[in-house]
């Protein structure tokens, strides 16, 4: 994410100073140009400001003031001066564009660097925000800058500012999928926060906003399994089950051999606790392309393991109830057919564990499966991995 424009901008600025240094003008302009030649930029700024107080329609003075403020690193004030110059004439439009691009590049790169350091030094997020906010000021049409700024607010858990920043980006570029994706993620986080404070209504409203954003992302790239997974999840959690069902069923009807469609329907069924049907759809994903090694194959395998695990847990709970009900003064016989489902989950979860080595939830699930199959050593190892990963967070 490195962009280098400084050399171009500096060359343009120096060239302009050399050309205009001896042109005629007001006394303040003459003084300013002499000060610029001597690199006395504070003095030049003062003189130009005095001249503009007398005549604020002098385009050249506004432009020179912008150049001087660039040298003084007063970038917001520079931008204001250039805006005033352009309001009068576009004679220096190209030069102003180069200055703004240069400042944007410096601020954007500095902001990204600060953001990347934020994980180890959280105070850097605020520094990133300062740089990136200025970058959006000098180049307001750069939607990638708004996204970087929103990420910095998001990292600080300042969700409202992240949302407003992304809404600005999307207003400028409605088809900006990366912005819509992040907006959905922010709303999803806000929903989770509402749930943690027992605000079910507030959570539902945020999940609905998340689903709106995720749907835009899905419509832009319906072939992505992650896009439809996020959409189905948000729809389900906001109580829009009929819409989730319609999207997934329609997907399969329109393309019965689409792995993405079967995956999406399987995820929907899994969330609805229809574990047997979910397993059937996810098995379809694998059967359609048995030798695939892509992300959808990995995701389908993981969710298939989870479907079999939860199916086994449900069957075991039912078997325990039946055994307890039939226990009348003698030992009841426990129906252990549930173990078939636990055994079916093992290869899928183990395969996922080889890829998702740092997924604590996955290791916990493996520990649960192994324990139900009396695989003591493997269960202990899986739970040890889970404990290690949760302590590292």
Overview of the molecule:
78% of the residues lie in helices and 0% in strands. It has 19 helices and no strands. The model is unreliable at 1-16 and 18-23 (pLDDT under 50). Helix 4 (59-71) packs antiparallel against helix 5 and helix 11 (200-220) runs antiparallel to helix 12 (225-237). Among the domains are: 1-102, Alpha Horseshoe (Serine Threonine Protein Phosphatase 5, Tetratricopeptide repeat), CATH 1.25.40.10; 240-338, Serine Threonine Protein Phosphatase 5, Tetratricopeptide repeat.
End-to-end gap: 28 Å
Order of helices and strands: HHHHHHHHHHHHHHHHHHH
What structural class do the secondary elements suggest?
A: mainly alpha
Question: What integer value in Å does the Rg equal?
Answer: 30 Å
* Uncertain spans: 1-16, 18-23
Topology (elements, then pairings):
Elements: H1 6-20, H2 27-37, H3 41-54, H4 59-71, H5 75-88, H6 93-117, H7 124-138, H8 143-155, H9 159-172, H10 177-196, H11 200-220, H12 225-237, H13 241-254, H14 259-271, H15 275-288, H16 295-325, H17 338-355, H18 360-372, H19 376-392
